[in-house]
Write a structure and sequence with these properties.
The protein is an alpha+beta fold and 260 residues long. It is built from 13 helices and four strands.
């Protein structure tokens, strides 16, 4: 038998039991379960049981803190428990307790996740769907929540992303730029159809961009090459930037005619 010298509260739901030969950390549920406040002594067998159950209570408390910071999916909790090296049996007990307390609300989780990704990231609906599928939610549940997104919000978000890309372009041809933007936006999770519709609405003077690039190259190489050699060299350089040969010829002819 071991004598209970003192039981001291150390935090929310947490206690320390001072025995005649050691101190152990435990939780209020365990103190109440074994009526430790009424006991003066405990057996070695009871001490071992308390220590084992305290370990389980500790990981359950850590799990509650984990899901208390933000909504978590069941898979995220299982991944957390695996990192804590919790055995499968104990994982099952914890998941069941959380389920019983209604702490896994899949609909609320999906709704909150979609809201955050739409409003605070560059992700489009398709990428959001793929990320949610990784958390092992049912596809029908994900699609139902995605259908509730305000389409105007998504289109406005895509418009801003595309406008930023277009306005930062100073060297690529119209066709090549549209191709690159389409690839980038589809990777972000927007449909090709939506991207193409938005690109059709945008108006950018790509001839001005080509002319700017051509004049910059001309100034750089005019003293190194001349005549037909310079013309072909500039044409090749601009062609590598994916401008069409007809566009290049028109702009170069205008530039070179000014200096003749």
């Amino acid at each position: 038998m071991m004598k209970i010298i003192h039981i001291r509260k150390t935090g929310k739901n947490k206690y320390e039991i001072e025995l005649s030969n050691k101190k152990i950390k435990t939780y209020d549920t365990i103190i109440l379960k074994y009526q430790l406040l009424l006991k003066k002594d405990i057996t070695e067998e009871l001490l071992q049981t308390i220590e084992e159950e305290s370990k389980g209570a500790e990981i359950y408390d850590k799990t509650l803190q984990f899901i208390g910071r933000k909504l978590r999916s069941k898979k995220e909790v299982i991944d957390f428990l695996n990192k804590q090296e919790v055995c499968l049996e104990e994982q099952t007990n914890i998941i069941n307790r959380l389920n019983e307390q209604g702490l896994f609300n899949e609909k609320a989780y999906i709704e909150a996740y979609i809201h955050d990704r739409i409003n605070f990231s560059n992700d489009g609906p398709n990428k959001i769907k793929e990320e949610l599928l990784k958390t092992e939610f049912e596809l029908d549940l994900i699609l139902a929540e995605l259908e509730r997104i305000d389409k105007n919000v998504v289109e406005e978000k895509l418009k801003k992303l595309i406008s930023k890309k277009l306005n930062s372009n100073h060297k690529y041809s119209q066709n090549y730029l549209k191709q690159k933007i389409t690839e980038q936006m589809t990777m972000l999770g927007f449909s090709k159809e939506m991207v193409n519709r938005q690109l059709e609405k945008e108006e950018v003077n790509h001839t001005d961009i080509l002319e700017h690039e051509a004049r910059k190259l001309y100034q750089k190489y005019k003293n190194k090459k001349s005549g037909n050699e310079l013309y072909l060299f500039l044409k090749q350089k601009l062609y590598q930037k994916r401008y069409s040969l007809d566009e290049i010829s028109l702009v170069l002819d205008n530039i070179l005619s000014e200096v003749e």
